[in-house]
## 1
Amino acid sequence: MKDKKLTEYFIVFLLLTVLGAPHLYAEVPSWKINTHEYEFSMQFVAVANIDGMQLTKPDDLLAVFVGNECRGVTHPIPVNGGIEMVF
């Protein structure tokens, strides 16, 4: 009886996860940068990953902070025939 109840809970959890996961999105941050506040600029190219998985979606964001101040925000750019995304 206990195993049957656990199986039922697992099936409900699995269905909620599979059906609900595609609808879960993070809120788009409202980071604002005034580039005229800075005398100098810097550029770099990076391949970003989280837990070994490369960020590959065009709506991914990479932001640079100094303390709590946002100094830069960018979206990925496809390279290598679209195989990789760089920021």
Note: Helices lie at 2-20.
## 2
Amino acid sequence: MPKKAIELGPLLVSRLVKPGAHAVGGVAGLQPKNSESGARSWVLRTMVAGKHRDMGLGGYPDVTLAQAAKQRARLKRHARCSSARCCRYRRDG
């Protein structure tokens, strides 16, 4: 059984500085990703058509935790569809 990640709030997300992906907890698949250069972004790790995909949701702090969680819900609905045409996603729609 997988470990359950500690649920992070906006303040704890802002304090993450270690490079790599971090589990947010409470929002499955949503990860803030910090690069070696200090750039930060939101990534949704999910399965689309039987394959693992990392979908970028935007840069942090331009995209807040609440906005990323809202986008995650919308994208997960699209990812459940098995046809390639339906699995395409757009951040603006």
Note: Residues 10-80 form a domain with the Double Stranded RNA Binding Domain fold (CATH 3.30.160.390).
## 3
Amino acid sequence: MTVSNLTANVTAFEFSITGYIGKVYSFELKETDSGRMLNTEEGSFGSAEKKSKAVSEDEWNDFFAKIFGELKVMDYAGRYEREDLMIDGEYWKMLITFRDGSVKESGGNSVYPENWDGLMDALDMIS
């Protein structure tokens, strides 16, 4: 599927990071009946700051062009795991939902895709 087809068919992008010391970060970009919305939550368990904003068509298209095109998130592995046992690491999860009901899922425990910094930059860009 092309980048433009992926972008036209995505309905939601969810991303979260949780950590051993109570860190929480969640990012939800989705289509709703009233338009495209971004909901974020950042901070510590019990005291995270929540924000919401409407997302323009250009912001939506630019974000997905970056993550599908440049970052190639559809090629991410399903799981990124450490070989050694680590129970106090940072857990992350990404879900992308499409109109046909299919879902791309990836996540890990203190192990990240090669272009992790680019993904973090894309999340900052639309936030």
Note: Residues 57-70 form the longest helix (14 residues).
## 4
Amino acid sequence: MICLLNNTIESPERVRVGVIHYKPERLTEEQRRSGIMLNLTEVDMPKPEERPRKAPVLYCNPKTKALWYEYVDRPPTQEELMSDLLGKIDTLINKQDAIISRLEKLNSSTS
């Protein structure tokens, strides 16, 4: 069993999950009643996809107990920013090399 807590109700069929509690037996009865109890284990939980610059947000339909992820934009990581910069530098170097090559051809044809 798991318990979904601190949920945000968006509609009767759509709840944004705040916290996944994998040991609901440690919760008080009131806490369990405030959450959504699911007959699942951690292994049964859906796994989010890796999407660049997106963060997974878990949703639940409290009527059917269906779970799914939706993806929202997130700020880029330092690694992503560095990768972007390196890609731009590579592009600039390639353009610079092409310009130098053209200039060399022009100079050799005028000599």
Note: The chain has a mean pLDDT of 95.
